[in-house]
Amino acid sequence: MRRALVVALVCWASFACGAPQPLPGMDQLRSAEFELGQQSYARAQEHAEAALEDDVVKELSPAEQAEAHWVAGEAAFAQGRHLKAFRHYKSLLETAHASPRLVAVEDRLFELGEIYLFDDEYGGWFDSRARGVEVLETLQIHYAQSDQADDALRRIGEYFASDDVQNWREAALTYEQLFREYPTSEWAERSLWLAGHYRLRLVPGPRYNQAELLRAQELLRLSLREHPRGVAVHDARADLAAAREMMAESEVMIADFYAARDRDFGEQLKLANAALLYPDTRAGQQALERLAALGLDLQALGVARFNSLDKAVAPRSAWDQ
């Protein structure tokens, strides 16, 4: 009889009070921390995210909110819920600039970025790989002066230059950013060559826009000037020779265009450019021979009249800007 009365009273209390009331924000946070310590990751994430709900989070200080994001991110990471983890880590970065968790978040971001970019779990999924770029870019932006910022850019460059992606433009821009922003990095020397190398790979042949070739030449010359005895010197020289050959071929092809239309001055201009600027190339030698066959030499042409490329600077495309 007594037991029945107790049960009845409990049932009446539950009916009267309605559904169980949610825990206050601080209680949710403490529960989340406890569950994380017990490796009950799903429950830890549940409590931490409950603490961050709109009607609860206002009870927490900014430092406590950052802690809730940290616990939720760690719990999600432990469960392999990488996107959820990244969002919590990013929220922590954007809202708490003095959290003691910031050092650990940096390491987590680097780990997450590598998982997204290179782990077989995300193999073949473009959106997931792109997420890896976003994660590492977040690291580089928020930890611009850290020892891992240049490593993050290197990993992004490697991804864009990989056989599966072959986005030469993004690879070139990433490696150039690494060199410009981290000139003392252990990756800076090789990155400068790679910036020119992938610029060059953007150009299928001499028929295409000279702007990319000019930019490739600038970067490769800078690489050789900055690191005349560097680890990439032989590669940089080979790429520069290839770029110069294509530039000379481009000048000769434009000369052929003018010749087919009986535009003698235009033909001579482009042949002079090739012969003057690229005398060490096969196309430059051919241009010199054609000028000689026309009974002309460079001095007689008065080359100062020509709009030569010797002082040309590669224009910046909107993409580069």
- Sheet-strand content, in percent, reads under 5%
> What is the overall pLDDT average?
86
Which geometry do the CA atoms define? Answer: elongated
Please tally the β strands and state the result.
0
The low-pLDDT segments are 1-21, 309-315
> What is the helix content?
over 70%
> What is the CA-CA span between the terminal residues?
83 Å
The value of Rg in angstroms is 31 Å
Number of helices: 16
Largest sheet geometry: none
H/E element order: HHHHHHHHHHHHHHHH
- Helix/strand-derived category reads mainly alpha
Overview of the structural elements:
The protein has helices at residues 2-17, 25-37, 41-51, 54-57, 62-78, 82-95, 102-118, 126-142, 149-161, 168-181, 188-201, 210-226, 233-260, 264-277, 282-293, 298-301. Helix 6 runs antiparallel to helix 7 (102-118). It is built from 16 helices and no strands. Mean pLDDT is 86; it is low at 1-21 and 309-315. It is elongated and about 95 Å long. The protein has 321 residues and is mostly helical.
